[in-house]
Amino acid sequence: MAKMHIKKGDIVQVISGADKFRIVDGEEKGVKKGEVIAVSPEEGKVIVKDANIIHKHVKPRRQGEAGGIVDAEGAMYASKVALYCPKCDKGVRSHIEIVDGKKIRVCTKCGHKFD
Predict the structure, then answer these.
(1) What is the full per-residue pLDDT of the chain (115 aa) written as tens digits?
(2) What is the dihedral of CA 97, 4, 46, 75, to 10 degrees?
(3) What is the DSSP letter of 74?
(4) Which of 114, 103, 100 is nearest to 6 (CA)?
(5) How far is the first Cα of the chain from the last one, in angstroms, to the nearest whole number?
(6) Rounded Cα distance, 108 and 89, in Å
(7) Closest by alpha carbon to 55, among 42, 73, 34?
(8) Which of 6, 13, 17, 70 could staple 91 via S-S, CB 3.0–4.6 A?
């Protein structure tokens, strides 16, 4: 099991791959950010809302129900995302500090506490 630097509910920035930039009307409009929906430490992957959209072909499960193609978020490696710091306004690395016996993730650039 690998240690994860990302947790469910974190806001992350995609730092590599096809989903690095938001595309609006055919133009790049900055980096893509999103909330982490699920984390899989065994595989080292995360699922980010509105990033890495895949097309799933779904069969009808009951009689009368329609099948079709459904858009869903696909898993991506955790190394392709960085924790988003609102103070720095970008994806940053973090380190762990122990405060009152608890481990807290802290931005290495500005000292913002995430937990």
Answers:
(1) 567 889 999 999 999 888 887 776 777 777 789 999 999 999 999 999 988 999 999 999 888 888 899 999 999 999 999 999 999 999 999 999 999 999 999 999 999 998 7
(2) 160
(3) P
(4) 114
(5) 22
(6) 13
(7) 73
(8) 13
* Alpha carbons 109 and 106: distance in angstroms, whole number: 9
Amino acid at 17: G
- Residue whose structure tokens are 């982490």: 36
What's the whole-model pTM score?
0.82
Q: Are 14 and 32 in contact (CB under 8 A)?
A: yes
Helix or strand holding residue 15 (H, E):
none
